[in-house]
## 1
Amino acid sequence: MARVYNFSAGPSMLPESVLKKAALEMLDYQNSGQSVMEMSHRSKIFETIIQSCEALLREVMEIPDNYKVLFLQGGASSQFAMVPLNLMTGSGKADFVITGQWANKAYQEAARYGQANIVASSKDKTFSYIPKLDKSEFTPDADYFHICLNNTIYGTRFTELPDTGDIPLVADISSCILSEPIDVSKFGLLYAGAQKNVAPAGLTIVIIRDDLIGKARDITPTMFNYKTYSEHNSMYNTPPCYQIYICKLVLEWIRDEIGGLKKMKEINEKKAKILYDYLDSSALFRGTVEKEYRSLMNVPFVTGSEDLDAEFVKQAAERGFVNLKGHRTVGGMRASIYNAMPVEGVEKLVEFMREFEEKHS
Ligand SMILES: *Cc1c(COP(=O)(O)O)cnc(C)c1O
C-alpha cells in the first residue's frame, strides 16, 4: 500500500528514512539481539541512546550549558500544572497571553496554584492574530510569563517575543520545536510534547535554565518536580525509551540529512509559501489568519461553505491527503505541515486544491 500524506495536527508524520531505520533495527538493535522497546533502561546500550539523544538535541538546538534538558512523560498538558508547581513559588503570580486553546489551558491550570493574570487575549477574533502586548500591563514581580509560541489549532505564531526583562519567559513549543532555530537563552523554560515534530506520543521535552530548578512547592509530587529529572538525568524511573530512541533518529535526520535547523526553516518556509500563496490567489479557499501571524506549521483554511469543506476533506482523503479536517472548535480545514511533510506533499495538495476549485466555481 502507498503511504498517504498525513496532514494531522498530531500525532503526525515521521521522516520516512527514520521509520525505515527503526524498522531495520527493530528485531536486533546493534547486535544486542533485542529491540529498543525490550531492553532495560539501565543497560549500557540504552544509556548510550539517551545520552546521544540529549547531546544531539543540545547540538541541533544550540542549547546553552546553563540549561538542562529533561525527558518526561505526561505530554505538554502535564506541563500546564508542572510549570506552576515548580515556578509559581516566589510571588505566586504569573502572566499569560491567551492566543488559543492550549494557552488558555495553561492559564486555567496555573490559576489553580496561584495568581494567574491575563495580559492580553485574541479571543475576540477567534484567535486569528497575536495580540499586541503593552509592557505596562505585565506583572512586575511575576514568577514567570507564559506564551504558546505556535498555536496549533488556530495557525498563528509569535514572530516577536515579549520583552519580559528579568522575568523568565516560559513557552509551549509543542508544535514548532525543531522547525526553525530558537534562541534558547531568551527563555527560562521551553516545553513540548513530542508527537508533532519529534517522536511518537509519550515523550515530553523540557529545556530549563539551571537556576529555575529546585523551587518547587513542598506538596509537588516527586514525579512533577523538575529536580527529580535533573538529578537523575531523566532516569529516576523508566523513561519513554522507544520515544527517546526515535527522537535520536529524528535529530540525526535533521542534522545529517536536512543539514540543521536553518535548512529546516528554509524548507518549512518554502512549504508554507506554496500553500499560503495559493490560498491568497484562490477564489474558493481562503486562509483564516492575519497574514503577519501565519504559522509555518499549521495552516487553517475554509471555503465559506460547510458542505463544500466536508466534500473537500472527503475527496482529499480518497486521493491520499488525510486528516485535513479542521479542529472541532474552528471547522473548515487545517493542513499541518510539520518537518516530516515533504515539499512534494504540499505541492500535490495544492494541485488537488486547484482541481477542486475548478470543479466548484
Ligand atoms: C498538541 C499540543 C498540546 C497538547 O499536547 P499533549 O502532549 O497531548 O498534552 C499542548 N500545546 C500545544 C501547543 C500543542 O500543539
Note: The domain at 260-359 is CATH 3.90.1150.10 (Aspartate Aminotransferase, domain 1).
## 2
Amino acid sequence: MSLDLPLLREHTPGCQGRIHLNNAGASLVPFPVQQTVLDYLALEQEIGGYEAEEQRAEEMDSVYSSLARLIGAAPQEIAVTQNATRAWDMIFYGLKLRSGDRIVTCRAEYASNYIAFLQRCRQTGAEIVVVDDQPDGTLCCESLARILDERVKLVAINHMPTNSGLIQPAAEIGRVAQEHGAFFLLDACQSVGQIPLDVAELGCDALTSTSRKYLRGPRGVGFLYLKEKHLSYFEPPMLDLHAATWTSSDQYKLREDARRFETYEIFTAGKLGLGAAAEYALEVGLEAGWQRIHRLAETARDSLSQLSGVKVRDPGALRSGIVTFTVEGRDPQEVKAQLRQAGINVWTSTVRSARMDMEARGLSEVVRASIHYYNLEEEVEALVSQVAGMAR
Ligand SMILES: *Cc1c(COP(=O)(O)O)cnc(C)c1O
C-alpha cells in the first residue's frame, strides 16, 4: 500500500501556495470533494433546493453507507449533523442522568464536552470522575476498571485531543467499558480520516466526528454513530418532523434509524461533500495515510526537539499527526504569526480547549503543527528551519 503523492497534491491546490499544517483545525479540501459541493450548489441554484435534493436522493442516501464503511458501522447507525459538537450533544444530552450517577472521563477531555458535563451535573446532581493518567499521559485502564460500577452511566473520552499528539487507548477503554456494561461515547473528531477506525474494534456504543478536520470534507457538517442495539430505546433530547412523525394530534413516532438524531434542515451540499470525503479517504487508504502522517509527525518531533529552546509538548506512547511545541521566550501567537508570514499555516492551542490537561502540564498555550499525509518531508523541514530561526 503506497500513496500517489503527486496525484494527492494535484488534488490539493492549496498546497501549491503554502505549507498547510493546520489539519487539526481544517484540512485542505481535495478537488473531487470540492467539486461535489460546488456541483450540488450549482444544481440548487438552477433547479431549486428541494428539487435538487429530490433529484439527488440516491446520492444523498449513499452518504450514510460511505460513512458507515469508513468506521465499520451499518448505514442505519449513522446520522449527519451540523458539526461534531451537536452530534456529541445529541448522545450526551439524550442519556438519562440522576443524582449520584457518574460520568467518567479523562484528564485530556475537550472543553466543550467538559462544559456539558458541568452543566448537566449542576442540573441533575450527577458527578464527574476523572480517571488517572499513566506516566506517559494516556488514560490508565486499570484505574478505569476500578471506577466502573453501577453508578457509572457514561464513559466519555476523546480519542485524540485537539491540543497535543496524545492518542488514547480507545480500544482498550472500549473493552473495559464493555466488560462492565458501561456506555462508551468516543469523540473521534481528530481520528476520523487520520487513522483506520472500526467501531466493533473500538467497542464504543456511540462515536461522533466532524467533516472538516482529518477527513478533509467541507465545514459545517459532522456525524454520529449509535450502535444498533441502542436505537430501540435511545430518545434524542430534541426532535423535529424529520426525526419523528406526528401520527395523530397527541402522538408521534420516532424514526427507526439513527437519523432520528438529525434535523430536517442541513447544509445539503456539505452533506454530499462529507460523503465524498469519506469515499476519498477510503480510496486513498487509511492505513497508508496514517503510516505517512505518523512518520512525518515523528520526524517533526525529532527535529524540533533538537533545537535549543524548543520543547515538544506531546505526551503519549504512540502519537498522532498533531505536533505541539513551545519556543522559549516566544509567545505561541507570535510564532504562529511569524510562520504565517513565511507561508506556513500552524495554529495554537490554549488552556481553554483542554484545561485540566494543560494545567497539569503547566502550559497556557502551545504552537500546534498538525500534519496530514499530503504534506511533504520538505515542508516539515521548512517548519523546523523557520522555528530554528526563532529559537535562541
Ligand atoms: C474539533 C473538536 C471537537 C468539535 O468539533 P466541531 O465540529 O467543531 O463541533 C470536539 N472534540 C475534539 C477533540 C475536537 O478536536
Note: Residues 83-85, 110, 112, 158, 161-162, 187, 189-190, 210, 222 surround pyridoxal-5'-phosphate (CB under 6 Å).
## 3
Amino acid sequence: MGNRAYNFNAGPAALPLEVLQKAQEELVEFQGIGMSIMEISHRSAEYEQVHNETQALLKEIFSIPEGYQVQFLQGGASTQFAMIPMNFLKAGKVGSYVLTGAWAEKAIQEAQLFGEVQLAASSKDQKFMKIPALSEIVIPENAAYLHLTSNETIEGAQFQSFPDTGSVPLIGDMSSDILSRPVDVSKFAMIYAGAQKNLGPSGVTVVILREDMLQDLPKNIPTMLRYEIHAKNNSLYNTPPVYSIYMVNLVLKWIKGQGGLAAVEKNNREKTGLIYSAIDQSGGFFRGPVDVGSRSMMNVTFRLADEELEKKFIKETAAQGFVGLKGHRSVGGLRASTYNAVPYEACKALADFMIDFQKRNG
Ligand SMILES: *Cc1c(COP(=O)(O)O)cnc(C)c1O
C-alpha cells in the first residue's frame, strides 16, 4: 500500500488499513449471503448479529459496567448537544457545563435554547489553552447534569482525569478521544461520540447511557430525539446507519487485536511524544500553545513564527504526502490529528520532517 497518504485529518479521519481491506473483501458479498450488508433488512438475523456484537464489543473494550446501554443514533454529536437538554434539563434545574473550547461552546449554545445554563468552570480567559483543574469545577446545587468535552479537537486540549460529581450525572462528549485510552466509565452517566474520529466513518453517533437516566423523561419531544425510544427499541426504532455500524464493528475488532485500550494508549503516547518532542526541542522554532499539562494525545496543535512560514510548511508537507496539517480555520496554525488509526510511522515521518524543516528554515 505504497501510496496511502500520511493522513492527519481531524475528522472524518484515518481508518485502519486492515479495516478498509476487510470491508472491501466483504463489500459485495457479506459472509456468504449473496448480498452486501447494505442491501439487507435492518431486522434480518444477519444484521442484528452485527448490531448486537458491536454493542457487546464496545462494552468489553471500554470496560462498560453493568447497568449501561449502548445506543447507535444519527445526527452526529451535534444532535446530542440538543438531545441532552431536551431530555435531561428539567424546569427548575440548570445545565452545568465546563467551557473548554469550541465544541463545549457549541454544546452550551444549544442547551441555552432549552433552559438555563451555568458554567461550572471555564478556560475562556486562557484562550482555552489549559483545561481547568478539577478543583476549579463548581457544580451548582440544582444542576441537572455536568457536561464536559473530554478532548477539544480544535484547540488541542484534553482532560487528563475526570471529576467525581456525586449524585449529579456526568456527561462527556468524547467524540475525538473515545477509545484512545482507558476511562473509568462508572464516573459517567452518559458518554457520546460521533464515530468519524476514532470509531469509524461518519453517520453513527455512539451513546453510552446509564439506565437510571431513562427514568421520568419528557414524552412531549420528537420521537427520534427521545433516548427512551431508542432504549426500548435497541436503536432499531427506525433504520439505523447500518454500514457505519458495521464499520465500527470492524474498528472495534481491530482495537481488540491491538491488545485493548492500555496498548492503544501506549501507542498513542509514543506517537504524539514524537511530535511534541520535535516542538519542545526546537528552541521555540515550533510553539505548542497548549499548556503542557493539558496537551491532547489526539490533536497536536502548533505554530510557527508567522503565517508565511506556516503556509510554506503546509505546502512542503503536502508535496511529501502529508494530509490534513492545517489548523482549524477558527484558530489557524497547524494541527496533526493522531487518532488511533494513524500509524506510528506517519507520526515518525512528520517528526522527522519537522526537524528537517527547522534545519532549512530556522
Ligand atoms: C467533531 C466533534 C463534534 C461534532 O461532531 P458531529 O458528529 O460532526 O456533529 C462534537 N464534539 C467534538 C469534541 C468533536 O470533535
Note: The mean pLDDT is 97.
